[in-house]
Specification:
The chain is built from no helices and 18 strands. By secondary structure, the chain is an all-beta fold.
Length: about 200
């Protein structure tokens, strides 16, 4: 009898500091998590190589290019002022907290950054999952819910996770797993990236 796939526990927190740094083409990378999406819309864990989606924070320290054939990517600039990209021969500007979706078959080139940049990087295999990133401003008066197929990443300010009536402070760049049954909510002051993964 085969085991059921592991699921991310709704309301659980993944601190960025738990991920070790590795090198990628333009700097360093910390993978937050990677996985699959069940037919019911729940997130399940998988390895970086076998999963249909992966989420990471990457530094961009130099000019260069990167290529992820057959994937869709969403880049969100977290630290730094601006990054010039060349996508399939078209110039694209990456501005702070403005997610940019890229569906490119050719390498993406970057200009020389004036400073080290940090980017939230969502990569999906579009034939298996569709991914979007939305930046939300947190409020102490209005809670932000995280549902099945969603992850919330604390980007700026102060956030509090409420789960089953208990509160827990969020640290910068903590990631919270969403879930319909647990109904985790986030409140506070600042900005959070809400990653939504859906079946195509």
């Amino acid at each position: 009898m085969s085991e059921a796939p592991q699921q991310f526990l709704p309301g659980s927190i993944t601190p960025l500091a738990q991920s070790s740094k590795k090198q990628w083409e333009l700097g360093q990378i910390r993978q937050i998590c990677a996985g699959e999406l069940t037919d019911g819309g729940q997130l399940t864990a998988a390895s970086q190589d076998s999963g249909s989606w992966q989420l990471s924070i990457r530094s961009i320290e130099k000019a260069g290019s990167f290529h992820n054939a057959g994937t869709s990517q969403v880049l969100t600039l977290l630290a730094g002022d601006f990054l010039q990209l060349d996508v399939d021969g078209q110039a694209q500007g990456l501005e702070p907290l403005r997610p940019l979706k890229i569906e490119a078959t050719l390498p993406v080139s970057t200009s020389q950054p004036a400073q080290e940049l940090l980017v939230l990087h969502l990569l999906t295999r579009p034939e298996r999952v569709r991914g979007t990133v939305r930046i939300v401003e947190l409020s102490k008066k209005r809670e932000q819910y995280l549902f099945d197929g969603q992850l919330g990443i604390m980007l700026q300010g102060n956030g509090v996770l409420t789960l089953h009536g208990e509160e827990r402070k969020l640290e910068l760049r903590d990631t919270v797993i969403g879930g319909d049954t647990a109904e985790p909510t986030i409140s506070g002051r600042g900005f959070m990236a809400v990653v939504s993964l859906d079946l195509p």
